[in-house]
């Protein structure tokens, strides 16, 4: 099994921290250099015969999004449609307009399975407060899976990694 997995989310939600946690001691390569015009390879997870290539989708960067026109929006969503899976990272503590913008892009990329990773749950003092937040998001979009995690504390990161590995399609060529 192999495939591209896009990690998306507004700045500061913990995407880089999550990537490092997912790749922990399982890194084949990591590179911050541009690899293709549509995706930037961030790292490769190799687990037996399975390879997950984590990518960045340049058109999804919020900083660029502010000035982006409709055409660019479409380019970003088609880049998302090129991946096997999307990990949408949000914070358990708050939801902003920027998260909403990222979700809009994801919504435009149809048929891509999306895992909602609700990060920084270690900062959520009252877990009951998290529930309405999760319910609101889950009511808004049909996520493949909703996973509360803590990337920095490593909570539920193993489950997320396993879910990604299990969900990648079988393929001969990659
Ligand atoms: P990115 O901009 O989405 O790549 O976010 P970063 O990975 O750079 O993380 C932004 C900040 O959030 C950093 O200070 C991280 O240490 C912190 N952070 C990331 N994950 C967690 C988490 O699970 N819990 C807590 N408390 N902080 C986190
Ligand atoms: Mg980052």
Automatic annotation (TrEMBL):
Keywords: Cell membrane, Cytoplasm, GTP-binding, Membrane, Nucleotide-binding, Ribosome biogenesis, RNA-binding, rRNA-binding. It is found in: Cytoplasm; Cell membrane. GTP binds at residues 9-16, 56-60, 119-122. Residues 9-16 are annotated as: G1. It is a peripheral membrane protein. Residues 56-59 are annotated as: G3. Residues 149-151 are annotated as: G5. Residues 35-39 are annotated as: G2. Residues 119-122 are annotated as: G4. Residues 1-170 form the Era-type G domain. An essential GTPase that binds both GDP and GTP, with rapid nucleotide exchange. Plays a role in 16S rRNA processing and 30S ribosomal subunit biogenesis and possibly also in cell cycle regulation and energy metabolism. Monomer. Belongs to the TRAFAC class TrmE-Era-EngA-EngB-Septin-like GTPase superfamily. Era GTPase family. This is GTPase Era. It comes from Corallincola spongiicola. The gene is era.
